[in-house]
Write a structure and sequence with these properties.
By secondary structure, the chain is an alpha/beta fold. It folds into two domains: about 20-140 and about 265-285, Response regulator (Rossmann fold), CATH 3.40.50.2300; about 145-260 and about 295-325, Rossmann fold (3-Layer(aba) Sandwich), CATH 3.40.50.2300. Helices cover about 40% and strands about 15% of the residues. It has 13 helices and twelve strands. A seven-stranded mixed β-sheet has the order 7-6-8-9-10-11-12. It has a five-stranded parallel β-sheet with strand order 2-1-3-4-5, with helices on both faces. The radius of gyration is 22 Å and the shape is elongated.
C-alpha cells in the first residue's frame, strides 16, 4: 500500500510543478504598447495580469511587463513600437488598430497580441479573422460595426430626436468605415448625422463651439484612443451642451457619461491573456484565430440622465446590463 502511495506522489509531482511553472527557467518579457496614458491604461493592464495569474503565471518569476505609452498621440506609436523591438521583448501586447499596425510594421518576428475595437482585416493588420497569418492575432470588438446600434439606442433614449451629432477624429483609422456607412445608417434610422471633427485635444473646444449650429438633439462619441485618453475633458464639454450622449467605451460612463454600448476593454484584456499564455508556451500567432468578445454590454448612468432631466424609457432600462444610480 505504501509503495503505491509513493508511486502516486511521484506521478503527481510533475503535474503540480507544471501548473506552477508554465515556462520553467524562462522569464518572458512582455512589451506593452499602449495608445493611452499610464493612468487610463491601468485597468486594462490589471485585467491582463489577472488573466495570466489565472493560468499559473507569476509576475517576476515567469514574466515581466515593459510598458510604453503614447498618451493618446497616434503619431508616437511607431516610435514606441520600435523601442520595444529594440528591447528584445518576447511578445508585444498592442492596443488599438494604430497600435497593432505600428507593432506589425516594427517587427515580423516578435509575436503580437492585439486588443482593438476596429476591424483588423480592413485595417491591414491580419489577413482574416480565421487565419490571421503573420505574427499578429488577438481580440477585436469590431466596434465601428456597433455604431448603428449605439445610434438606435440613443434614439430610443431620446424619443423624437432627428439629429445626432457625431464626434470623430478625421485622422483615425476608425473614421473611414463609419463615413462609408454613414448615409445608409442615417436612412435606416431616420436620422441626420452632422459631424464634429477633432484631430487632437486642442481641437475639442472648437468642435463643441460649432455644435449649436448643428441643432443636434443627442451626441455619439466615436471610439478613438484620443477621446478615451481625454474622456474627462470630453465629459465636461458634453455636460455643458446638456445633450444626451452615447459612447463606445465603458470608461466614459464611469467618468459621468450617460450611456455605453459595446465590449468592455477590461474583459477583452483578460481574453488577451489566453493568447499570451498559448504563445509564450510555443503557439504561433498565425495558427490562433482572432476572436471577438464573448459579451456586449449596455450600461446606463441614471445620475447623468437626471442631471439632463431625461427620463430613460422603462423598456430600455430593462435591457441594460448595468444601471449606475
Amino acid at each position: 500500500m505504501l509503495r503505491w502511495l509513493l508511486v502516486a506522489l511521484v506521478l503527481a509531482a510533475p503535474l503540480t510543478s507544471a501548473a506552477q511553472d508554465p515556462k520553467p527557467g524562462k522569464v518572458a518579457r512582455i512589451g506593452r504598447l499602449s495608445p493611452l496614458s499610464a493612468e487610463t491604461d491601468g485597468p486594462n493592464l490589471a485585467a491582463f495580469r489577472k488573466g495570466l495569474r489565472e493560468r499559473g503565471w507569476v509576475e517576476g518569476r515567469h514574466f515581466t511587463i515593459e510598458a510604453r505609452f503614447a498618451d493618446g498621440k497616434a503619431d508616437r506609436l511607431p516610435q514606441v513600437a520600435a523601442d520595444l523591438v529594440r528591447q528584445g521583448v518576447d511578445m508585444i501586447l498592442a492596443g488599438s488598430n494604430p497600435g497593432a499596425l505600428a507593432a506589425r510594421r516594427a517587427t515580423t518576428t516578435i509575436p503580437i497580441v492585439m486588443v482593438t475595437t476596429g476591424d483588423p482585416v480592413a485595417g491591414g493588420i491580419v489577413s482574416s479573422l480565421a487565419r490571421p497569418g503573420g505574427n499578429v492575432t488577438g481580440v477585436t470588438a469590431l466596434g465601428q460595426a456597433l455604431n448603428a446600434k449605439r445610434l438606435e439606442l440613443i434614439k430610443e433614449a431620446v424619443p423624437g430626436v432627428t439629429r445626432v451629432a457625431v464626434l470623430l477624429n478625421p485622422a483615425s483609422p476608425y473614421t473611414p468605415p463609419f463615413l462609408a456607412e454613414r448615409a445608409g445608417t442615417a436612412r435606416a434610422l431616420g436620422l441626420q448625422l452632422p459631424l464634429l471633427e477633432a484631430r487632437d485635444a486642442g481641437a475639442f473646444d472648437a468642435a463643441f463651439a460649432a455644435l449649436p449650429t448643428e441643432h443636434a438633439g443627442a451626441l455619439l462619441v466615436q471610439n478613438d484612443p484620443l477621446f478615451l485618453s481625454h474622456r474627462r475633458r470630453l465629459i465636461e464639454l458634453v455636460a455643458k451642451t446638456r445633450l444626451p450622449a452615447v459612447y463606445g467605451e465603458r470608461a466614459f460612463v464611469d467618468a459621468g457619461g450617460l450611456m455605453f454600448y459595446g465590449a468592455g476593454l477590461v474583459d477583452m484584456y483578460e481574453q488577451a491573456a489566453i493568447y499570451a499564455d498559448k504563445i509564450l508556451k510555443g503557439a504561433r500567432p498565425a495558427d490562433l484565430p482572432v476572436e471577438q468578445p464573448t459579451k456586449l454590454e449596455l450600461v446606463i448612468n441614471l445620475r447623468a440622465a437626471r442631471t439632463l432631466g431625461l427620463t430613460i424609457p422603462p423598456s430600455l432600462l430593462a435591457r441594460a446590463d448595468e444601471i449606475v444610480e
